[in-house]
Amino acid sequence: MPQPKFSGVIPPVVTPDNPDHTLDVRSYGRLIDRMVGSGVNGLFLLGSTGEVAFSNDAHREDIVREGIRIVAGRVPVLVGCIDTETDRVIEHARRAQALGADAVVATAPFYALGGLDEIEEHFRILHEEIDLPILAYDIPACVHSKIPWKLALRLGQDGVLAGVKDSSGDDVNFRYLVQENEKAGHPLSLLTGHEIVVDGAYLSGADGSVPGLANVIPAPYVRQYEAYRAGDWAHVKELQDQINEVSHIFDVTAGVQGYAGGVGAFKCALNLMGVFDHDTMPRPVRALEGANREAIRKVLVDNGVLGA
């Protein structure tokens, strides 16, 4: 099986902040070094997990500049250039390129919603004006537009897109995209953003995963990808089952939802593990505390991630 340029385990990096909401560079370094040392194949800065939607331009620049400095060329760095409309995405992408990004990741336009013609033109304009590989980020829950497999494949065949990061929850569309991509000569790198069912995506033929939980437990995801490459499907499933036990950090909390329960759980876990000095959340989201924090601690202890 050929290995595309962007493949393997490419975690969407959690952004650690100080209590004053500036970037916590020391914690950022520990997090990145830990994942790279575990053997990840790339890093995705400023994804949804990386607080792109909460970060102003100056904070985005700090996250990208410091992240690329810390990585120091050890793995490819993908940068989320996510904004409402095409011209803003181009601005972010040009800055990411100047800072040393290896690829950019962009969603369909949002807020001023259009149709498929506008989505296609959006990506074609990005390709014309950005001199970096572009991966489409398919996340309709946030941008309210779906990128159908036929459109993604056409853009891949035309050299507009280098890949797709699929967080759509549409397993049928992803399955068709993988199959038709293979028939077309594999123009796209296809990455799943669904960390709980990576084994199923690999069985379909995905090129890799973008699992937020790899911030907490990178090594099992790396071993799972290696088992996939080796055709050891029993081990692929076994590792997914182990990973999923840790994923219950998402559902043992009470009274929180959305970002607070997802990225909030990551930050809480990383703080408990000593990777992050703080578990500061972006305003107006509150950090997990009290019984919720202890519930996450118990999951980590029960699964050997954290000492008792």
Automatic annotation (TrEMBL):
GO terms for biological process: N-acetylneuraminate catabolic process. GO terms for cellular component: cytosol. Signal peptide: none annotated. CDD domains: DHDPS-like. Belongs to the DapA family. The keyword Lyase applies. This is Dihydrodipicolinate synthetase. Keywords: Lyase, Schiff base. Gene3D superfamilies: Aldolase class I. The active site is at Y137 (proton donor/acceptor), K165 (schiff-base intermediate with substrate).
